[in-house]
Structure formats: C-alpha cells, structure tokens
Amino acid sequence: MNDNNAMNASSNDNEAKISHLEAENAVLKKELNRLSLVVEGTKAGYWDWDIQTGLVTTNSAWVEMIGYTAEELGQVTIATWENFSHPEDLREATARIESHFRGETDFYEAEVRMRHKSGHWIWILDRGKVFERDGEGKPLRMAGSHQDITARKRAEQKLREERNLFLEGPVTVFKWLNSEGYPTEYVSPNVIMLTGYPPSDFTSGIIGYTDIVHPDDLDRILHEITVFFANPECTSFEQEYRIIRKDGQIAWIYDFTTIIRDEKGQITSFEGYVLDNTIRKHSEQEVAYNRRFERLISTLANEFISASAEEIDAMIDKALQSIGEFVRADRSYIFQYYDNLKLMDNTHEWCAEGIEPQIEILQQLPTAEFEWSTKKITVGEVIIVPRVSELPDEAATEREILEQQDIQSLILIPLVSGNVPFGYIGFDAVREERQWPASSASILALAGGIIANALQRQQVEHLIQSELDLALKLSASNSFEETIQHCLQTAMEISEMDSGAVYLLDESENSLNLFHWVGLSEALLGEMTQFTHDTPEYQLTTSGKAVYSDENPAFSDKLKNSLMKEGLKCFAILPVFSKKRPVATFNIGSHTLDHVPEFALKALETVTSHVGAAIMQARHEERVGTVNRNLETLFESIDDMLFILAEDGSIIHANSATVSSLGYSLDELRTMNVLEVHPPELREQARQRVEAMLVGTETLCHIPLLMKSGETIPVETKITHGVWDGKPVLFGITRDVSERVKSQAALVESERKFRELTEYLPFPLFETNLQGVVNYINLSGMEFFDVSPEEVEHGISAFSFCWPENLELAVANQQKIFDPGYLPKGNEYTIVMRDGRRLPLLLYNTPIRKEGKFAGMRTTVVDLTELKQAEAAMRESALQKRVSEEFRSIINNIPGLVYHLSEDNRARLLSSGVQPWSQILIQANGIESLDDAIAFVHAEDRQLVADTFKKLRTNQTSTTIMFRIPLPGNEFKWVENRSTSVFSDDGCFTGIDGILFDVTDRVQAQEENQQLQANLQKTQRLETIGTLAGGIAHDFNNILSPILGYAEMGVVMMPEESKAHEFFKQIMLASERAQNLVSQILTFSRSEESESVVVNMQSIVEEAMKLLRPTIPSTISIQTRFRESGNVLADPTQLHQVIVNLCTNAFQAMTESGGEIAIELGEVAPDREFQKKHPKLKGERYMQLSVADTGHGMDATTLERVFEPFFTTKPVNKGTGLGLSVVHGIVTSLGGDITAESAPGNGSLCRVFLPVIDEEATKRQTDLAPVEKQDATRVLFVDDELAAAEVMRVMMGHLGFNIITLNSPIEALAAFRKDPEAFDLVITDLTMPEMTGIELARNLHELNPRLRMIMMTGYGKTIDNPASLSRYGLRKLLKKPVRLNKLAEAIREVMSGSAHL
C-alpha cells in the first residue's frame, strides 16, 4: 500500500514537472518567435559560433548581406568569416574577440568590411557575446549579429568630405576683432594654403591682418574700411586686393566681410571669408594683354599690306622691335631654313639696349642641333618656354646651347608658306625669366603668318625683279659671251647655288660643248668638256625636260664619280630651246646645299625658257661684228703703237699712232722689216729679245725705236702670237716711255739733293720701311745710335732701341701715321742705348709715299736729356720751396716722420718728428741716403724695405709696409711706412715721398686678439667633441641596462657557493666599471646632471690624497701646499674625480723614472693678464688648484689635443683617453677653466680655476637603507628597447611587483584607456620613436590625474627642466642603468608620496 502511494506521489510529481516544462517551452517558443520577428524586422544577420569546432550557424540574412545564398556558401565556418573580412579590419576584430575571451569586456563589438559577391566592400557592425564556458572559464560558444552599416559609413564619409571641403577647401573663414592691429580671433586651418602661414601665426599675433596685404594696396584697403565703418547702415562689404604669401609670391584675394555690432551699434568684430582670386585676376590681365597684342598685330598687318618689297626688311625689323618690346623680350629674330630644312640662317634681328647682337655669328646652323624645336616648328606648333632650365631631356642639346647664351625664356613662332615651314620668329629673355600667357600663342601665330606672307611676297618679287634685270642686261649686252654670263649669273643668284656651266649645242657635230663656267674645278671640267649624241648626258639634256639631282638621273658612272670627287651635293640641268630647237643647257650646282631649293625650281625653269632667243640673237650679232670690233679696237682705240708682223718680221699693218710716232707712212712701213725701225747697232739684240718674248722667257723689250728723222724714242715693246686673215702673225704693242724716263731722271736728281741735305743735318734722321726696318740713316744718326753702314745694310729694327715699356706705344703711334688726315707731331719715348743708358727722345714721324702708296716712315730725333734734367732741377727746387714755405708747420705736427728720397737715392727728413721715438732716431742716426735709412731697420726686415723701394722706382704706385726699428735699451718700435713714387709727365722716376707712423700698440693689440681667437677656437672644438661623446654615452647606457640588470639578478638568484654566482658577480663589477666610464663621458659632455653643494676645496683634496697615496708607487713623492682656501659650489664626487684624474695622469708620466707630484691650492684675484688667458671667467675670486709633475712632458701637438676625449699617448690597455677630457667637462660645467702647460723633458703643469662662493660648506648625507618587497603595486613599464623591458620585468617580478611591460607607447596608451584604474604606477623611458615619455605621461595624466609615474633616461641633458614635469604626475627621474635596490627605493618613495622632482 505504501509502495503504491509512493508510486502515485512520484507519478503526480512527474506530471507536474512535465506540465511545468511544457509551460516553459511554450514561453520559450513565444520568446523565440518574438526574437525572430525582431531579427527579421531589423534585417540583421545572426551567427552562432561553436568555438571548439569552428562551425558557425547563420541565418539567411547573414549570407544575403554579402550577396550569396546559403547553398552557395555551404557550411559556414570561422574561416569563412575571416576570408571575407578586410585584412586591416580583421586584425582589430580578432584582437577585440580575444580581449572578450579573456573577460576584459562584457561583449564584443567591431566594424568590419566584408567583400560582397559583386566585388565591392560593405561595412558590417559585428556584435557578439560568449554565452557558454567550461569549468575553467574557457569560451565554448559565442553568438552575435551582423548589421549592414554601409549607408551610415558612406554618410559619415560624405560628412567628413563636406567638412573638409569647407575647412580645407578654397574658402578661408575668419573672425578678427575691432581693436588696434585688428587681431585675429579665429581663422580656419586652410589659411595656410592661401597665405603659407599656419592659423597659430594669426591667432597668436605673430602675423597681423595688415602684415600680409601688399604695400601698394594697403592704403586703399584701410581707406575703404574706414569708409565702411563710418556708415552705420553698412553691414557687410567686399574688397579685392593682393597679399604677399610667406614664400614671397603674390596672390589676389576676394574678401567678403560682415560687420558685427553690439546693442549700442558699436563695431565689435568682423566675420567673413576670403577666396583665392588669383586665377580670375590673371585671366582678366591676360585678356587685356591679348587685346593690346591683337591691336599691335593688326596695325603691323596693315603696314605690311601697304609696304613695297624694298620696305619689307625694314618693316620686319620694326615688327620684331614692336613685338619684342611688347612681350618684354631682350632679343627678337628670324631664322629661315634652307637646304631641305638641314640648315638655317639668322636673317633679321632686334636687340634691346645693352644686349649684344648675335646675327653675324648665327649663320649656317645645322638644324640637327635643334632637333626638338625643329620638329615642333615643322608641325606648326608655337613654342613658349618660360624656363629654359626646365626643358625636357629630349631637348638637352638645345638647353645647353641656350644656357651658354644666357637665354632664360623664349618663344618660337613657325613661319609657314602654304603647308611648308621655312623658318621661325624667336623672342629671347636674357636678363630675367619671363612668364608669357599661353593664350597669346594664337596671336603670336597670327604675327608669324603676317611676317611669313611678307617674306614670301618679298621672295616672289625678288624673283620677278631678277627676271626683269636679266632682260635689261641682255638688251644692253655687247657680246655673246656677256649674254651667256648674265644668264648663268642670274640662274645662280635666284637658286642660291655656287657653281654652274653652260653648254652650247653644235648641230653639225651633234654634241654639247662647254662654253662658260663658274665655280668648278679644272679636273671636273676636263671630264665634262663635251657630250656626244650617244651619251646619256646628251640625251637627258636634249629631251626638253629639266632634270634635278633628287631624281637620280641616269648619268654615266664616270660622270657620277667626277661629280662625287668635285663635292657637288645637288644640281639642276635646264635645257634651253629657241623655236622648239635645243640650243644650250644650263647646269647649276652647289657644293654646300643637299637639295635644289624648292622655291627656285619654277624660277629656274622660267628664266631658262626666256633666254633661248636671246642666246641665238647674241650669237648672230657676235659673229657679224667680230672683225670690225677687233680692227677698230686694236688699231685706233689706243695711243700706243700697234702693229702686225709676218713670221719673218716684215710689217703687215700698223695703226695711226705708229705712223705719227715714227714719221713713216703706212705704205712705207708695210715695205719694211721690224728690225729696220731699231738702231743698227741694237738690231741683233732686238731680234734676240723678240725671239725670247715669243718663247716666253722675256716679257718686254726696252730697245729704243729709230724714227725716220734719225732720232730715237725710248719705248717698251711686247710681242705675242696671233692669227690675221687665217694666217699666223705676230701682234706687237709699243709704248712711248719718254716722259717716264724724264720723270725718273728728275726723281733721281731730287733724291740726290735730299740725301745731301739730310746727310749733314746736325741731328739724327732715319727712314724705315713698313716693317720698321731702317733703310736709311744720316751721319748724325749713325753717331748718335752708334751703328755702322754695314749694320744698316744688313737690316736693323728701329724698335730695337725702344724701352720695352714704350714698345707697345711706339707701334701704336706708327700705325696712326698712316691714318687719313694725320698731322705730323712729336712723341716722347725712352730709348736704351747700346751702353745701357736710357735717354728721353722726342721723335717727329712723317709718312713716305711712293706711287701714291705708303712705303715707310721718316723720323727726326731730338735728344731731351738736358731739357729733362733742367725740368727735374726746377721741380726739385719748387718742391723744396713749397715744403719749406707752405707746409713746414703742418708736416712737423704730423704724428709721424715725413721723408723724401730723390731719384739718386739721397734721403732727406722733411719733418722734425714730434714723437719721442722719432727724436731718438734722428739724434742717433745720420741719414743721408737710402743705404743709411735701411741700416737702422731691424735686420730681419731690411730685405722687405729694400724690395719695396725697388718696386717704387719702377712703377708709379703707393704702398704700405710695416717693419721694426731698434731703439737704445734693446727696445724696438713697429713702424708703418706709407710711401708713394713720383714720376714726371714723360714717365721718368723723380723720387719717393713717404711718412713713418708708430704702430707698436696696434701690432701688440692684434697679437693679443689672435691669442684670444686661438683660445676661443680650442674651446669650441672641445665643446663639439663633448657633444659627440655625450651621444655615445647615452647609447652605451641603454646597452648597459640589461647587462647590469641580468648580472645583478644572477648574483641574487644563484647560491653564493656556485661558480655561476661568481661569474655574474664579475659581470656586474665589469658593468659597474663601464657605468663609471659612461659617467665620465657624460660629465665631459655636460649631460650628466649632478647636485652641486657648497664644499671646501682643501678637505676634498686631503680626502683624495688619502685614497691616492697607496696607489702611487713609492718612487714618486707627493708635495702639497695649501694657502688660504675658500669654498666652491660643486658636486663633491666630481671634485674628487678631478683631483684623482689629474694626479693619476701625473704619476703615469713618471712610472718608469720616478719623480715628484706638487699640488698647490689657493685663492687668486683675476688681473688683466688672467682675463686675456681666460676670457670666459668673469668672477672676482677663484680657487686655483695646480698639479705639477717632473715627468717626460708633452710636445705642442700633444698639448693641443690633451683635453679631447679618447685621445691618449699611452699603450693599449693603459688608458682610455678620458681622464683629462672628463676633468675639462667637470671644470667648465662648474663655471671654471683649466689650462695645461708642458714641454718635452720638462714635465707638465695643469691649473684648475673654480669660482669662490661666500657660503658655508654643506655636510654630506648618508644613503637610504634598502626597502622591502611590495606585492600589491600594479606597474606598467614602457620602453622601446626590448632588452631593457625584459630585464625590468625580471627585476620587478623579483621584487614582487605585478608588472606588465610594453614596447610601444601607443600600445601602452591604448591599454591604459581601456581601464585607467588598472595600474598604480607607470615607469616609462624618456626617448622612444612613436612618442616621448613626457608626451605619454601627459596623455596618461589626462586619463587618470592620480596616477604616479617614474621617468628613466640614459642622458640627463634631454630634460631641460625636470621639475616642471611634476604637473604630468612624474615623481622620480632615474638614470640608466639602475641597480635593484635603487629601483625599489625609488618606487617606495613614489608610492609613499615623498618623492618629488
């Protein structure tokens, strides 16, 4: 029964539980439906992540967000999410998930970009929370949602862009106050883009409103503002003005300002904005510029239209000037291409004032050297180059050429005829760079078109004029040959080619025969004398078609080779026809041009088409008139006797001049032989002379002719071969030279009389040829110059007697004699006689003419020696009189000694001397000559004085020298000698005037200044080396920190009986020695900050001696001497180090030989000599510590470097070179100075000077006792050095602190932001790459003002004012490396609140 009751009760309980579970399940289903509706309503995707398996359950919205279906993705895992997430966002999201896993956050949230199926990124807000963990707290499952926030992120981005557009775009917003100087209250950040100044410069008052306004606009702007302010109804105003940016550039701005008034109507401030208006302003200026330019070009175009061909060149020059001045160019010019664009010439040029023309040298320039610009010109492009130095690399050659001509900017405008470019117009800026508007390119192109049309019109009219001139020449031609010459010359001129040949057609022989040529070699003419009808050349030239070298005509190989050897580069073959019959061919060629000019092709064909009839007419007329012209010209047109002889000498014919001169009739002469008109005794000689002329060995016959009356006529006869009536004859011409013979006889007689007259003149006279060689000299001249007739006959140059310094003047004066309108006058020269004497002469030169031409020069000589001596005596007398009568009192009062040295070295003192030294000098020395004066000069300075006076005798100049003069009593004076040489008007030396000044004080002052400069340079060098040493020590401290820290931990943690304990102990001891070395380096560089107290110097010295004595060998004795000793302000440890280092350095100099160290201490009062040696010491009293030794001493080189760190003369392992450098650093940091004196073999002496302070000495404090471990302190340690951070973690862990170490201040700041109360203490390094320890402390202090912090550094100098850092929570400053007990003590002080910076 009881069992049934129990079963019933149990069944009832089960039913109740089932009912309860069903009710709960219904509620859960209802909640699940409600949650599904919420998720569906928000369109959110949810996910459920099994962390152990990595599987993720998602809804459809999750996969649809990234553009997929559930079937496409399949089973989703955590890797699926990672693959679709952006790498940058994935790192941040993963870090937040891990933080949530560690329980640091209540939930996880991150914004992540995921890749959509279409390829773009969408923004997802990913949220989740761990809802299941195991017994150990490890997360097992996590669920969350995805929300598409792409639209929101885009809106945020757009908002940022709009804000940046307003604050960083072109609009600058401002607010300035209505007070003096209009101070700026606010200005938007983008003001730096407009002005170049940051906003802080304006708001701090460094830059004011009026400071940036252009000076030319400032008065106008301020006036307008005053007017606006005065109008109470004015609420805003607009202005345009220029400002000067920070970089010096000028910008135009538009300023819109709103006036802010208070309730009383008073102006309180101004608000508004400004815009950069430079581009619009420049556009307006550019438009105005182009309009003026267009008017100028229009005016020039009208003038070109009305200009004739002759006026075009002048108009082009005017246009170049007008356009050049308008565009402010320094040079404008035109280059024209030729030879198929291979060459170009500068044809027109205008230069501004002061610019050197270049047109003469800029000819025949290869366009290959200007490849870049030529390519652009040939396609019609206008080239504007504001800065030649910035031309592209492909224009490197042109850039180099332009820079050699100092061209900084240029414009090039193509010249085009039709579509063919033939040159360009250029404008250069030489003095400064020019910025030409790019929009003016079209106007410049228009100008180029106008000038190009003018040049083309000029060329066409020139060709037409050439044809007209040819027609006129042909109508006036007197011969067939002249007609051919005119035709060929015209063809060459219009084609601009340099050679040509004319071939005439011989129809009887069917050949082309060379008739006339220009500019061709004999070798080529020999190959081209004739072309027969069967040659390709004959067939080409008779075809009636012009042939050009570019067409590669089918010439024979022989002719091609001949043309190649001749160097002809191009040619044109132009057939000439008359009545459709070929009569000739004109061949035109060039040795320089590669192609026949394009413009000349049509012109050549036109000319040759017109000359056929002219050639035929000229040939006919030539044949008809040849005989008549020959007879008339030969026999009747001249006055000379003309005759024709048969080969046997019989006279065939003679002209009327022959008949009248000889007295025979023409018939009588025709019966005579030519020898019969010669004197009988000379006939054989005449026959021989005629035969000689006929064979070419003689040219003239001077045998007289015999008249019928029996008289003879002096004649000059010439005979040549000829043809008369088809028979060989002799042509003779005879000229009557009777008048010439008479003139020559008269000239000989006149020459004889002139020579007799000049030969006995009482003064020298000579004649020279054009080369200056004497060809005649009279007796007085031979005697005066001591030359013989033989020397004159062999040739002697008149310039050989000239003084070298007068030679150039003599040559120049000789050339002037031959100038038109020259009037003879005398010139003075100095000549050198053969015995070495120099004499002054006056030479009168006149030109010699023979047959109307200059043949030489005639010179009359006057000796001026006596005259010059008389003039010198008069000048000397006048000088003495002037000095004695007018300036005696002035000279006597000059603070110097005035003297005069005559040309014969006689010395005379012109002043009595007012200084004691000059009186002693005058009394002690009898000075009568230059040698006497040099004798009392200091022996070392005599050569300088002698050389100076020697220079003054040869050159008219002034000079200043200094030398010493010994005085009685072994003294000497420094004397400055200012002297001037005096020369006469004819260039002769007459003496030296001078004055002596006492400059002893100035010289001594200069020497003292040089000593001070040397001391200053030495101090500066040591300061530089100290800075370097400090930097090395700083880095070394960072290295020592982990070494010393681990060594100390090893000593603490290892048993004392273990070898490792002893090893670590030795490492620690070595590290401490290195730390002491670093301390010395920091002391030298003044980076090691020390605590200075008032100490007694004598007590420090005595204490140091107690420690030093046992370490110094017994062979070295120590002597101390103390005078009255005061107190100094210093670190006792540093003073101890100074004494130890000085004494150690002293005894090391005597280790081998032994000796004595003498130490002295006492007060000194600075005097003048002290201040010279120690210019930086300005105190009234100093303690002087002297340490002297009797060691081997130092030379000057070693002494100069004795205070440099790491400089030592000791062997390796015997010294670091830091001892004296550390002493120097300590002493100078205490406001003192140190000097060293030494010489080899005499020991060394070091003196230290420290300022005395009138205060009582401070007693030293004992060190604090070690502290106990603290377990509760939570410490964050930050140091970028990994080793330093790790050793600190070990050391502080040993002390029992809860420490977290980070190597990045950024990471430390982020960790702190998560929980500002998570740490009790922060220890940070000072110098870190991402931010300094001070910046980190400031940021942490803002997050938690109660936080305590400690700063660590290896270099004390980095912090200028450590006490000021306490406002950031910094309570202690430790220097690396730090010992364990020091670290614990510092933390105890900070945490107890007793530590202060």
UniProtKB/TrEMBL annotation:
SUPFAM superfamilies: ATPase domain of HSP90 chaperone/DNA topoisomerase II/histidine kinase (SSF55874), CheY-like (SSF52172), GAF domain-like (SSF55781), Homodimeric domain of signal transducing histidine kinase (SSF47384), PYP-like sensor domain (PAS domain) (SSF55785). It is an enzyme of class 2 (transferase). Residues 11-38 form a coiled coil. Residues 1031-1254 form the Histidine kinase domain. It comes from the Bacteria. The keyword Coiled coil applies. Residues 31-104, 177-232, 627-697, 750-821 form the PAS domain. InterPro entries: CheY-like_superfamily, GAF, GAF-like_dom_sf, HATPase_C_sf, HATPase_dom, His_kinase_dom, HisK_dim/P_dom, HisK_dim/P_sf. The modification 4-aspartylphosphate is found at residue 1325. The keyword Nucleus does not apply. Residues 1274-1391 form the Response regulatory domain. It catalyses: ATP + protein L-histidine = ADP + protein N-phospho-L-histidine. Its EC number is 2.7.13.3. This is histidine kinase. SMART domains: GAF, HATPase_c, HisKA, PAC, PAS, REC. GO terms for molecular function: isomerase activity; phosphorelay sensor kinase activity. It holds the Pfam family GAF. It comes from Chlorobaculum limnaeum. Keywords: Coiled coil, Isomerase, Kinase, Phosphoprotein, Transferase. Residues 108-161, 237-289, 825-876, 959-1011 form the PAC domain.
